[in-house]
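thought: user wants a sequence for this fold. calling inverse folding tool.
action: design(structure=
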């Protein structure tokens, strides 16, 4: 069956699902995107959304992340990426004595050709918003930045629509239809049935819930923590502030980035764990606000412009985290006509993954770049997965 005769249903209107839909539609498929909420209404709309391949903790899928970074550079060169802010990433360590591992990591990046450098001197020379303080290490990654993920997702949804894709938002999938070992479509809460040659699940933290509609059991989604990263997160958004950071920057455990309208977004794993102690995703908002205010006050030590800034929002968010931290991409349960994409760092990898998934689902290729991320690596032993959370 040729690409221009295939009918595809994409479940999930976040950044991954929408980018895949646009690529599929561009390749000639008839595409419908369904979501119980709105476009970019899930994790895509509540994320720090840094695009990077430099973080050593995600080394297992460095190649996939770097492919995503190259895709952003291409889109920017085409003048087609107003939501991509290539401001660079700056990581500063004030304390510590053993930097051998991180120095080696940066050297490895440089040897591979990835834009990375170790700087010396005063960090204010590269980020004027910083206070003056002694630094043990300064690492800079000029090819990185941040993405206005909701704006990017809406943009690609519009592009997909112009290519003929249909969006069914506010209409939840209530059943995934099967004929033996083949998935044939989905049924929606509205009562409509969408017959499909391919159903692609891009449902983020709702992945297990959606896949259970096939009658199969999965444990792909981390409930509390995976690979040292907690599922609940807290993002602080300030009022517009002059003189704040102009790039994605971190000092010790605090990360900053510019936000829309002159605002600043601040995040720290320290406060994420504090949020977990008071209920995580179910935490009382007033208690979360107190944690957020404390983070804002702590962050002002390194960025003085934030000293008198008002916190506009302490946003409780839930990361989409696979149980082992790495992306899960491919055909679960050995079912024909069913494909899944579930990943942390989705903002970074979405442009690359969209092309690879299109190649596999429409053209029948087995992409080597995805070989290590297949679902069966996890489903083979559910009991071992449960112990990793």
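)
observation: tool returned 389 residues.
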């Amino acid at each position: 069956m040729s690409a221009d005769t295939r009918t595809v249903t994409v479940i999930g209107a976040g950044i991954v699902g929408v980018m895949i839909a646009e690529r599929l539609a561009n390749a000639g498929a008839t595409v419908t995107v369904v979501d119980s909420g709105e476009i970019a209404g899930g994790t895509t709309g509540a994320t720090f959304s840094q695009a990077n391949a430099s973080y050593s903790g995600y080394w297992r899928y460095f190649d996939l992340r770097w492919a995503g970074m190259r895709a952003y550079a291409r889109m920017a060169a085409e003048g087609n990426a107003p939501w991509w802010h290539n401001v660079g990433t700056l990581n500063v360590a004030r304390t510590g004595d053993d930097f051998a591992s991180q120095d080696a990591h940066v050297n490895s990046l440089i040897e591979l050709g990835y834009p990375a450098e170790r700087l010396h001197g005063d960090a204010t020379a590269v980020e004027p918003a910083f206070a003056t303080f002694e630094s043990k290490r300064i690492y800079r990654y000029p090819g990185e930045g941040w993405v206005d993920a909701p704006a990017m997702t809406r943009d690609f949804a519009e592009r997909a629509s112009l290519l003929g894709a249909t969006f069914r938002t506010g209409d939840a999938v209530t059943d995934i239809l099967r004929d033996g070992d083949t998935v044939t479509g989905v049924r929606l809460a509205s009562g409509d049935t969408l017959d499909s040659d391919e159903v692609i699940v891009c449902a983020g933290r709702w992945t297990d819930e959606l896949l259970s509609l096939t009658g199969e059991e999965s444990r792909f989604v981390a409930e509390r923590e995976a690979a040292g990263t907690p599922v609940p997160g807290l993002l602080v958004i300030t009022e517009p502030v002059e003189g704040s950071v102009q790039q994605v920057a971190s000092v010790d455990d605090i990360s900053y980035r510019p936000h829309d309208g002159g605002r600043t977004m601040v995040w720290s794993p320290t406060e994420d764990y504090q949020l977990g102690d008071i209920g995580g995703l179910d935490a009382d908002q007033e208690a979360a606000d107190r944690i957020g205010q404390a983070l804002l006050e702590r962050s002002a030590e390194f960025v003085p412009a934030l000293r008198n800034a008002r916190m506009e929002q302490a946003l409780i968010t839930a990361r989409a985290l696979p149980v082992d931290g790495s992306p899960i991409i491919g055909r679960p349960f050995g079912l024909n006509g069913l494909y899944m994409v579930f990943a942390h760092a989705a903002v970074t990898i979405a442009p690359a993954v969209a092309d690879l998934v299109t190649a596999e689902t429409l053209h029948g290729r087995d992409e080597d770049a995805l070989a290590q991320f297949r679902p069966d690596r996890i489903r083979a032993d559910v009991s071992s997965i449960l112990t990793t959370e």
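thought: summarizing for user.
answer: Here is the designed sequence. Residues 89-142+232-318 form a domain with the D-Amino Acid Oxidase; Chain A, domain 2 fold (CATH 3.30.9.10).
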